[in-house]
Specification:
The protein has 468 residues and is an alpha+beta fold. 17% of the residues lie in helices and 26% in strands. The protein has two domains: 285 residues, Cysteine proteinases (Cathepsin B, Chain A), CATH 3.90.70.10; 175 residues, Immunoglobulin-like, CATH 2.60.40.10.
Length: 468
Amino acid sequence: MKKKVRVSVIFSGLLFIILIGNQAAAWELGLIPMDRKTYEGYLKKGDVTMSVVPEPAYWDWRDYGMVTPAKDQARCGSCWAFAATGALESKILIKDGWEYDLSEQMLISAYGPPDALGCCGGLGDAVRFYETVSPREESCYPYGDGDFFNIHSTCPPNSMIAEHYTCPPVCYNVSDFYTVEADNLSEVKRSVRTDGPGILAYEVYEDFMTYWAHPAGTAPWSDGVYFHQSGEYLGGHAVMVIGWDDETQSALCKNSWGSDSGPFGDGTFRIRYDQEIAEIYNFTIVAGDCDGYTIALQHIRTGRKISDFASGDQDPAVSFLSAVDSPYPERIEGGYLHWQYEFSSGKNREGYDPIPNNEFCKWDRNRATISKRFCTDWEDNLWMDAGYWIVDIEGVESEHDYIRIYPSTNESGTSYGDDHTFTTMSTAEVVNQAVADSTGGTSDNIACFIATAAFGAGMAQELRDLLL
């Protein structure tokens, strides 16, 4: 479940990965290198004027609350998916302040060769999978490949968990994927600071396992910063980079080997700048299309409750009821109902209500209906055009619905209930009624007459233009 986090810094997102040579030398690893020609094809042409601006000597995204807790890939070579997913979580935090626990399993299960081999490794550009597909939450699509190499000795299979798209999408997509040369330290820093936490991959040797298993300060890494001293090469590994420290000449990283492990006991570590940092991948995020899911509205009825005119209250309440068709109705509550209306005189209003909002906006999930109640002052107006739409908690906007409402008065003070169903007229009937009202041709002996119209596409667009 997502959580809203207050932030004081607003930036876009970055992913960067350093590639090395083995596909999956050990279960803790799993990064597959990209060929140089492809990598160079992704190179981003930087802004020279910005690149000369010095970066601060120290930066840590944890100081701003933009780093989610470390996770555990366990016995699966899925570091590439954990690094990408962690970077995506941070990007969403930075962009909109929402904290998600996103599913790594979706990327492992759904994104296949040539860029990803599940528990046998993946490339840095595998994150482009999310250019057209929205991520899912861990609670619905949990990690299930942690025991992969306890059961399988090789790939295929690439995963033990089937690909599926039954979970509600988290409405973000990856955009503007590119690469950056890693030997330009100032550009790496600028990317991390301005575009957010990224992903760093490095060559893992046996002595890194010793460094990881002992508390910070253990010799020969007395300052807590890893550098390779001895031992055989094990393979390539991808982690997140969350900052840097010039005083210790090191990058600050978040691993995927557990939330309470490592030299600092929190799943993070430091690695010296000169430790075979080879390549960097970068991307931003945008508000996504949620895999194309839509919310439809179907107007059911319009009503009006008239107070006793003898009491002097001539500001009656208008209400309407609509059916809501959404594949994820649980996302309606907590969203907003937006509305705009304009009278024949040209007077107009607009606003929005949280869903629900006491008696003014009610959401019935069981019946999948939403109702809106608001007060109007008809004065001498002949009609009111009203438009309304829903924006759910993921930011998905429903189609817009439009209705035209006509008043009529009578001194008898008769009151209709909130649930009174008024006549629904065709477009032609609405036009005829408007002409009759404007020429005084109506003689209905009722306290209130409200007509709603099922507008055709042409008139709906005219109303859209009028209201918006």
